[in-house]
């Protein structure tokens, strides 16, 4: 959900961290999949992607929500099952208030 993509190349294992479990999606040639940007973790080289907004400009600017990634195969995509924004929206109202 940040402003940058990190490209990893080479031979060996790559260790990723996510919020929640990682769900693997395998896409065939020209197969499409759409995911919220807050759940998008990684993808194979060669997978096409396009970030776009959904909903109005106001919701995108003021809530940070409203961005999705349209992914086009072939290749593997890794998605996290939870988003930190959703977790914080749930958690913050439950925190004790200071007097």
The largest β sheet comes out as: 3 strands, antiparallel
Helix content: 10-25%
User: What is the approximate shape?
Assistant: globular
List SSEs in N-to-C order: EEEEHEEH
User: Order of strands across the widest beta sheet?
Assistant: 1-6-3
Number of helices: 2
**Cα Rg:** 16 Å
Strand content: 25-35%
Structural class: alpha+beta
List the keywords.
single chain; 99 residues; alpha+beta; three-stranded antiparallel β-sheet
In short:
This protein is of the alpha+beta class. It has helices spanning 57-63, 84-91; strands at 22-27, 32-36, 40-43, 48-53, 67-72, 75-80.
Structure description:
With 99 residues, the protein is of the alpha+beta class. Helices cover 15% and strands 33% of the residues. The strands form two sheets. Strands 1-6-3 form a three-stranded antiparallel beta sheet, with no helix packed on it. The radius of gyration is 16 Å and the shape is globular.
Topology:
Elements: E1 22-27, E2 32-36, E3 40-43, E4 48-53, H1 57-63, E5 67-72, E6 75-80, H2 84-91
Antiparallel strand pairs: 1-6, 2-5, 3-6, 4-5
């Amino acid at each position: 959900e940040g402003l940058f993509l990190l490209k990893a190349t080479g031979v060996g294992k790559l260790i990723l961290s996510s919020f929640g479990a990682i769900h693997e999606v395998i896409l065939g040639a020209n197969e499409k999949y759409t995911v919220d940007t807050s759940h998008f973790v990684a993808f194979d080289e060669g997978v096409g992607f396009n970030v776009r907004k959904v909903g109005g400009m106001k919701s995108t600017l003021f809530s940070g929500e409203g961005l999705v990634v349209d992914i086009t195969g072939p290749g593997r995509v890794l998605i996290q099952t939870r988003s930190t924004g959703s977790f914080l929206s749930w958690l913050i109202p439950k925190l004790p208030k200071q007097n």
